[in-house]
Description:
Blueprint: E1 9-13, H1 18-29, E2 33-38, H2 41-48, E3 60-63, H3 69-81, E4 88-91, H4 106-134, E5 137-142, H5 155-175, E6 180-187, H6 193-206, H7 210-219, H8 229-240, E7 251-254
Parallel strand pairs: 1-2, 1-4, 2-3, 4-5, 5-6, 6-7
Amino acid sequence: MNISLVGRTAIVGGSTQGIGFSIAELFAECGATVLLLARNREKLSEKVQLLPTQNGQKHDILVADYNDAVTVELVVRGFLDDGGVCDILINNTGGPAPGLIENAKPDDFMAAFTSHVIVNHRLSQLVIPAMKNRTWGRIINIVSTSVKQPLAGLGVSNTVRGATASWSKTLASEVAKHNITVNCILPGATKTGRLDAIIKKKTEQQNITEQEAIASMEKEIPAGRLGDPKDVAGLAAFLASDWGAYITGTNIAVDGGRTNTF
């Protein structure tokens, strides 16, 4: 099976590290032109130079912080108004800080809702009209397995992830007739900066070493290992390609079998 994204342009959020950059890198390998979207201009400038260009792509960067929905919208709108194209939108940003829901403040929920639901929604609204005109589009949301099974110690995240999945399912039904698919990928325990923060919290709460914390996580995973960002990127590339044209409105876990639901 040849997964080709030649001729497609993708905007990839949170793409200076972890899952976001892994997706951007694989998309470029598959022939797509990639726009890296994140808040740190210096890191973006470094990472964009690492993307493959074997098909003559000219990758670029978009600088905006997902915590500032207005700026994200203005930056992407400016790109599109200048003639930019987005065939594939990857909604991705770092998750809310770990913590018990009983200790969460209202502002914690509002901030997470803004960066994970409002930004996803506004970006989708910006790119969908042109996708409709081309009768082709892909919107992929990187969420969490907490959509299917809430995770202990991630109260705010569990709440907002569910909202993201419901928004995504609703949008998928509305735009499917235009050959636009909308799906959620649900990474499990994946080796990213966010997982490092969760592991650190676990070591502090349980008074154990980092190695012990990792071992306890791996015991919960039938595959016996933590996920790699490339595991998520592979599914994203498939869903973004023509092979994924009939898959929409789904929540697909990439978690080594850890989630105990269908």
